[in-house]
Amino acid sequence: xxxxxxxxxxxxxxxxxxxxxxxxxxxxxxxxxxxxxxxxxxxxxxxxxxxxxxxxxxxxxxxxxxxxxxxxxxxxxxxxxxxxxxxxxxxxxxxxxxxxxxxxxxxxxxxxxxxxxxxxxxxxxxxxxxxxxxxxxxxxxxxxxxxxxxxxxxxxxxxxxxxxxxxxxxxxxxxxxxxxxxxxxxxxxxxxxxxxxxxxxxxxxxxxxxxxxxxxxxxxxxxxxxxxxxxxxxxxxxxxxxxxxxxxxxxxxxxxxxxxxxxxxxxxxxxxxxxxxxxxxxxxxxxxxxxxxxxxxxxxxxxxxxxxxxxxxxxxxxxxxxxxx
Length: 325
Fold this sequence. Notes:
single chain; two-stranded antiparallel sheet; globular
């Protein structure tokens, strides 16, 4: 009898609360989680797009799959980290550190083209051999970063922990909003450069027909160098943005590389606009899959979407059919 009485006394406050009409707090609705995942997917997608545009332009101009492009992403993030946080660095604010990382990434991309790829092409090295060279370069750069940076993840000194803006059913931090808007602005600037400037017109001409462009008086070697520098700078910027959203690690670019490949293949090989669109689709699918499936599988569902789209449209979303043979 005594245990029953004790149980009754323990439950009595809950019964009284229920009688008074108190409601049990509920979590966010599915609609709110859906909108939140959509916003995070767009944010993730534009970061992938910044990194993937340069990779797509390089493929369009020299038809080379640059496997070392992911390491340019890592180097941009870790170089900014060295300038911003490292005890042996100058302790710059993240904004000038990011600008310096973009310049360093552009110079490194130009050095790879001028010092390695161009001499190999001049010797008549085939595309398969060049692809294997980029794999070796990727391994070399990745482990150089591991030795210099270390295996411990790090975060930038500024914009690390912030309170989210409450926008009705969704929330976004000032950092995330700024990164997303800046990423969109950069992508629009790249699109305007490709459409409105002479160098952009030359890049598109070389991508369509390299021999005809060279016969028309376009300095193809200069265009290829500009593309490599542009790709290196964009990859470095994307690396800093990705490091802001996640953490800075020695292999972060390699992890992002598969999604970059998925984005440019989904959008259409060699198309900068296709790379932008495909990367955003990949980012949205990756984030929204977490509504139903474990987060560890988000990249798998993004790649499954790539396979499904290619089964329906083999040339990608914005790609064009080509005759074979």
